[in-house]
Write a structure and sequence with these properties.
CATH architecture of the largest domain: Up-down Bundle
Distance between the termini: 52 Å
Strand content: 5-15%
Structural class: mainly alpha
Largest sheet: 3 strands, antiparallel
Number of strands: 3
Number of helices: 7
Shape: globular
Amino acid sequence: MTVLSQTDIVKRLMFVRHLYNIGVGQLTSQFPAASVLSFHNATESFLQLGIEHHDVKTGRHTEFIELFDELNKHLSGLELRDGLKRLNDTRIAVKHKALDVSAEEAMKCKSRTQVFFEVNCPKILNVEFFSFSMSESITDETIQNSCKKPRTTFSMSFRAESLALGMPIPEKKSCVRSNVSNAFAANSTHLCSCPLDNSFSICLP
């Protein structure tokens, strides 16, 4: 028996995607270890969503990896438990032992999280994790339609999911000017920051 509607599932997955995107953005920050906490938050929220959707009974203080185990008992066939365990171990080292992790290890946590979502989201929620646009969460129809129109931009760092989850529209003045290259600079190219995940897109004039 499933509990949540497809609309509720997508809305909750948008929040999980938001947490994941925060982690991706933190990989290039001064403290890439912080991304581990975001990836862990994303996977924990995802597992909790699966637990609720399939009405799986768990204890009040069920541990992170136990969420996976309980869900797997109900569905069977879930994969990459070891990757989740390593993500959790790294998160404990960062949060509770104040240990730093290298940018390389943080990137491995990102890869484990991404693959976990890609493999298990269809099995748990019957939807591809990266198959929908974050613009679907915008309630203003005019803005939503605008977001869905093709734009002349290049992706930089990772997919920018701007204007989602009701975030304010960035003013033009919020764009961060940057001489990306002589060729781009000649065309007044600049970087536009995404308010959702702190990523950037190269905006053409």
